Task: structure prediction
Amino acid sequence: METMERIEKMERVPSASGDRFLGSPSASSTSGAVSDGEPEDLQGFDDYTIASSWERFIASVETICREWQAAGPEGLLEKGAISVDGSRNLHRIHQEVSFGKKLYVIVLFFQLGAGDEIEDEWPAGLHHLQLWFGVTDFLVAAPVTLSGVILDAPEATTLLSTVAVALSSCGSHWPAFVPVHDRTRKAYKGVQGTSSSYSITYEADRIGSWVPVRFMHLEGLYELFVSKVAFTAPNTAAVPSLRVEFTMRLTYRAPMIGYDYQSKGGPSSVAEPKPDYDGESPNEPMWDEDLPWASWHSVDDPVKGFELIATWKKMFVNDSHEMSEYENISTFHADEWALVPTFSVDKEPDQPEEGFGVRLEGLANAFSISANAQFVEDFANVVKPEMDLLLETFTVPPPSVLERVLKDLFYAAVIPTGEGFTYEPRGHSIKGAPRDSLFGRFAMHSLFFGTCNIRAISDLWLEFVREIRFCWDECQPLPRVSPEDSPDLRTCLLHQKLQMLAVCIKLKSEERSEKAKHAPLHDSPRVGKASKEATEASRADQSDFQQKHGEVRTSNSDVRHPLDTGTKVHDLYLDGADGPYTDLKSPQDEMESLFHPGSESPNPASKKKGSGPAVENAIVENGYRSAHEEGSSSEDDEKWQSWSEEDEGEADVKEERRGSAGPLENMMLLHSYEPLHAPITQMLPLMTEDMLMEREQAIASLSRSQSEKQARLRLQTDILASDMAAFKAANPRAALEDFVRWHSPRDWLEYDDENGDAEISGSVHTDDSGEIWPPRGRLSQRMSQPGNLWAQIWDQIGPQPACEQKPLFDFQREGEKVMHYLDTVRPQQLLGQMLCTAFVNCLEILKRTRIGDLPRLRSGISGLYSSANIVLEPISTMTKADVPSKEYVEIWNKALHNLCNLFRDVEKDVFVAASLYQKLKLAPLSLVGLFNSYLDDGKSLARVAVGGSSNGGDEREQIAELFPPAETGVDLGTRSRMGNYLNGHEPDVREVKLKCYEEDLRRTLGSRNERRVGGKGMACHRMYISGTANDLQVALTVVSRD
Amino acid sequence: MAGSSGPEFDHILKLLLIGDSGVGKSSLLLRFTSDTFDDLSPTIGVDFKLKLMTLSGRRLKLTIWDTAGQERFRTLTSSYYRGAQGVILVYDVTRRDTFTDLSEVWLKEVELYSTNPDCIKMLVGNKVDKDAERVVSKQEGIAFARQYGCLFLECSAKTRANVQLCFEELVQKIVDTPSLLADTKGFKKNLLRPEEPYNPQAAPGAGNCTC
Result:
């Protein structure tokens, strides 16, 4: 408190005060340095030369201060000032200066930009000296030692005096501080000159262990303050009642909210308890166990706890009794509440990073390496030395890991229907695979297979293909792929191939079981029944598939027979075609094999999926469906059997009816007045995207010569020819008109009565309902023109039921083609598809994460989608023919690297948002505010105001739930308590600031001194106290004058 | 597509004609590609025609896929929706069922099978030469087009009225849509686009139009 006086004296009469402590024999060895170069005996010297070491020290400090002063804040930044962590715009610059043998460091802390936070009593992000003493810019002088504090008083005084003199000489009003005593005491001394005659002294100290009960209560703190300020005032006497301005900040802490919190049962902060969770178990549930990424990995909860900061703005108290009342004030009535999350510290660089982002980057790296080889085997079994070099750092996980992955992929009982098995590319056009499908899950597993390197992935892939090969060879249903779907062209080619294979395996196993049973052929009643079942099954709902599947299989196999005349149709058709398409055999032999894949294989295809709906639709069109559906199945059976028997009777005389799917009601053959039977038609060929492209190209290229056009026609007409042959077989006496009425009803025009004169056949029957037969009508103009293609084919094609025809779709061949694709897929194509699939699935996981209504994060995610679309879309549509050059691969790699980084940034934000949402879902406004603050201010300063004017609804009740009622521990009763409870919790920190204006002080104390205090505002004494039961930090600011 | 891109054109566009059987899809296409009219056999499965045209300085190669309207062929034709930039929905102004089927059948097929989310749809009412038999008014067509976000024209393949215009308008619209045009130059150009992924404001592929 006397420092200033001393300093001033020193200035005026250096000798008088200088010797008082500079040359003091009692000075310790450290301060002894001060007298370096001085005569040992100071007696008789009244003057010091300007070159005394202390003066040189002052001069050098002064030079530093002038330099800093002249530079201004912007200039200081250029000189290398750095920002102080965890602050708002506080920067520091330092310079070392020696004094004798000792080295000191002078640090200037300065706030960049206007100090606009004057209004805020308790701003966040303050340096502790700013908080304690209410200063903005300030100097700290400290010795360069391990502790960085001055352990003895004379040295402290010297240093502080030096800085104060230097500052005063350059006319600066920066407050200056020196750290004193033990480091743990956080003790400081400081001075500040002002433009008026007042000067300010600062002092801070701390009690780190046992705090006197008196100081644990507001009352005691008030008395402490009053005694301090009144002591320094003129006409001193301790005054018990003094008007004091007072603000208070309470901090409550709820640590480790995540699973730790759950045991305490905080209602709003916990995830819903799992019913199967064993509460006794020491394994607490992970915070993210019900979040979408949980099946792949677990993330450390980024939010470690919350602090609630309740503040009271300016209040006035007049005596210690009034002050003590504030201990009972309800925390809910505080002027401001701020919720501050405590985030986990950032990971060390050598720790493994969490999340999909880093894994995707691994896969992207594997993708870029994959261009180096033609086959996946090259990466798994290293034989080439240059490949060895490339791969030597890569490790492969042990076989047990591989087994576990394969078990999950192939042996988990999964029904491949539902959301996880449909691919909905919303907001992007990247081709991937559904997340639960075989390939989708394979791609995800590869992310977590070892370190996701190319070598490990290649190993996994080869085993994966081996398992698929087993399914195909042994007729085991392909897991995770529905055999009821045709290839989805929106997905990646690999997934389409697997869809194709699933269908092929289904057809193959149907054929096998049929062979095993050796069902008798041409059993008409059975055929009728079976085909009806087939039709019904095809109409059946997807969900019924499981139940009906077996039935369908057997019934379908009933229909078919092993066919030794397989090529007959083909020949027949070609023979017929010989007329108009004379030279078509030569043009495209390859095309021939491509589009008549079955020519070598005698295996008949079942009709089921493809034809079912079509037949059914035809039925609907003719008004048959209702009747058919209403009739009970047993009735139907009988009826159909009778039809069949009748047919057989006729067949003795005439041609035999074969391959009928049943008669159509109200449809009679025009010439013979027999019921028109819908034929069993062949399953239409399935095509994956690459096949489709080949076919498109073939059709497009066959347009030049006449012969090419004919060949192209034949490509197009195979289905129609097959349908016609089947129709003829099912309706031996049918005419083209009958076929058209069934197949293309709009090309049959019925006459109205008045103008109908076309006679189609001789005899006229009358139906039960009195209908005139035959109906009067004709083929449409385009159907009846000479040279009509339909008529030509009709004339050329002979009757042949679908089961005897050459199959339009050869499952044996197509299945082998898929296996060939899997065996020979280029590594780059494989990795490209894996990367796209994994990326889309990871994106979906982020998107599905429950984060509440956070528009900024949502838009961040959709931004990520569009970036991903640009980078990945070309990769996902890369075809076999596209071999990108090295140069493009470079560009790709760069883009992928950036994309992965972007993904990691967004992913980190999603982790934070998910954690905050989990804890704050009942307080949506606070959630949004907190998350936005996290984005804007960073982890260290993120906070949100709760309640009050800035916030529409008051969510204090919900926020208070985060701080569950304290357990009634034994220690609470015995310990002295501080008051200011929230849910029974004491505040973890209670901070108060007390201020007393000189004017009030004088009025109270009856001062006779009338000198007014200059400067801006009124000078005030100030005390900052932060305290709990075992920690008390006090900082005092006292204004004084001569 | 990628292999065949030569110097004689700037973009390949894939268009698709769909609608009930007998509404005149093949006739429209024949009129457009060879300016003739003929009573054609009903299309079997899928047919294809090629047309080169130049539009506002761009040389375009149109691959136009003509599909059969019969139900039996629908599973076959559905795979040809893949990658089409434009879909022409054709109905017959003298048959109302062909008009109602567009919304009940064909638009759903487009939704289900189109792999190009931005693909342009065009509604075309054919056979306006048979004015006496007309049952679907122009206003109804306009209302339909507005509801489903389509271009709309009435035309006649027989009298050639509006046929040329119909294809030109559709192609113009596709050319004006950067995201559709982006994919039409084949594989290599796409590779260069990753240069600009971190500028979400820039329309993907917008740069391709100027070169």
